[in-house]
Design a protein that fits this description.
The chain contains 4 helices and no strands. By secondary structure, it is mainly alpha-helical. The model has no long low-confidence stretch (mean pLDDT 85).
């Protein structure tokens, strides 16, 4: 996200989720819920299924 100029805080605000949810996923502490995957998919214009193909 940094190369795109997007901080964790900005992303969390933009998709209306707690910043801890973004941070936990980035730090590989946990997977994300389907609703968050959908929000990320819409935000980045990608298929939300990409999240479930990634290893934790």
């Amino acid at each position: 996200m940094e190369p795109m100029g997007i901080s964790q805080s900005k992303l969390a605000r933009d998709i209306d989720v707690p910043v801890t949810r973004i941070n936990n996923r980035i730090k590989h502490h946990r997977s994300i819920a389907a609703d968050t995957a959908l929000r990320l998919g819409k935000y980045f214009n990608i298929n939300p299924r990409w999240e479930y193909a990634r290893p934790i």
